[in-house]
Fold each of these.
Amino acid sequence: MRWGAGIALAVGGVAFYLWPTPHPPFEQLYADVNPATAESLRRFRRSRPLYTISVGGYRWKYLVAGRSEKTVLLLHGMTGAPDIWWQQIEALERDYRLIAVTYPPVDTLEAMDEGIQAILTRERVREFAVVGSSLGGYLAQYLVQRHPAQVRCAVFANTFPPNEEIARENRMLAALMPLLPEWLVMAFVRKNVEQVVVPAAGNDPLTRAFLTEMTCGRMSKAQFIARYRCIIQKFPVQEVRCPVLIVESANDPLVKPPLREQLKTLYPHAQVHSFPDAGHFPYLNRPEAFTKLLRDFLRDNFRQHLHPSALHP
């Protein structure tokens, strides 16, 4: 009896930990999204292959669109992928070369920088504009500090400066996450998406669908934990000389008002655009307005004619 109970408990524990993350099909996930928008995303994925490069034992994936010498690097947040920018990519690729990356489970900003530099080197890019949202906006700030001669202009969207608040507020959860099964971590993220992120986005079906898809197999627990460790890594900030655009939302539930104010104080010469009610993902649920911001900022601040040294020989 005791042996049987012990075995049953062990099997139950293993089953609990190894229970698979759900993988609903695209049609189910995007059932409530405007059909033309959902088909646009599906068509984009079919026509845009992801390239792979190995850096430091990790496989980095990225996509490239457009043929211009003016390159724009797109950096997504914690629950993103390269195609989260598909609406901006399709709108801008006639005028710019766009490189959108995703992050393997590297857990330092230095390792992220190493991977991005390897991609830029492979694609023969020396100068670029950088657009980042949330974690991507934090990483964009880091790149501006590390490589000021490379960055022509920068967009820091729905993001935060180096701080201690995020780590302090999430200390207990951060300690627990490595111990929890993947399905449970992703279920927690989905609950936060449904109860916090989507309502702030006006209950936008696309925002719900894309972020739910990310937690249903497109992002691993290892990636999520590594990305979190990157957002709590602090780095020194010096004066930034390149043009900067800060994009924020007044109702952003993931970047609290004090952090938004600290960001603007850190970059006093930045242009600032504040959405009144776009939540944390305006490039998903306000794509036209967000893309217009990018188009106007890039047009005004990106050099029309790059020096030959901007490209590798």
Amino acid sequence: YKFSIIIPNYNNAKWLESCLNSVLNQTYKNYEIIFIDDMSEDNSLEIANKMLKSPHKVLKVPYKKYNGGARNIGIMESKGDYIVCLDSDDHLKNENTLQEINDNLEDEDVMFLGFDLYKDGKEDLFPFRPNYQTMYDAFINDVCAIWTKVVKTEILKDTLFPESTLAEDRVHHYRICEKSNSFTCILSPILL
């Protein structure tokens, strides 16, 4: 499968190189990165332009869109079979993450990902392992962030995010679950 990695950003220069390198260093190479800068006031855009060359894209929004609006721009620009959304302070666990995702997909509409969440770098570990038996289990789950999923591009293009808000993930999670007919889970941590 081809993956579109969508990364919205606002003033996250501190973590950006780690985020982008975690994707650029993947052994699996069938992907594009779409980086959307949401009016940053730091040097994020400079870092992204330095690190990302074609076929990857660096986009700057003309006015503040917040995460949902920035992600929608990336979704509409995407050419992959599946979309992986990362926040610009996240990173893929290791260099084989995309390969593991690809190997475990069998044309499902959505894949739910395990992750280890850290606060301030390495404090307060919160591990999450999605072990859903039904789509309803996923629907009612409290962990609803878009970066916990890999979703078919056609579904995301049909279920865009609410814009001009920072609380876009929950509503969007419900829309994805309603539109998806098939799913799978990866229990091992994929994201940090």
